[in-house]
Write a structure and sequence with these properties.
Layout (H helix, E strand, L loop, with lengths): L2 H8 L3 H9 L18 H15 L4 H6 L28 H33 L12
Length: 138
Amino acid sequence: MRIGDAAAAAGTTPRALRLYEQRGLLLPPPRTSSGQREYGPRDIARIRLVRQLLTLGLTIEDVARCADRLDLLEGDTLPPYGSPGCSGGSGGSGGASGIVQRRIAALDAEIARLTDLRDRLASAVAEPPRKAQSRSQA
């Protein structure tokens, strides 16, 4: 299928597919005699996986670092923790595992920050409102 159809099937845009190819997330697909890209089912599955990783908060650079291992992941879902692939585990490279571990640590820090903010807001609302001095007392 052509780039527009492939992008629609994967839930993205042709521009994103070109960017993914340029950044090494996708292998350059074969081209028609007129030079148009031709994508197959495996390409669509890989595009969906790339999008899933990006949605989970990894950057394009993070995904590019483990792009050579994306073919180990099957379907549209990530493998269980500890299996080969970008999530690390046996057979996974330390770099890919480190990428995910750093992202998890960043998310944990953000959750802690937001929980603290929520607790402070809840405390502020629970406090009785301060009474403004009326003009008659001034």
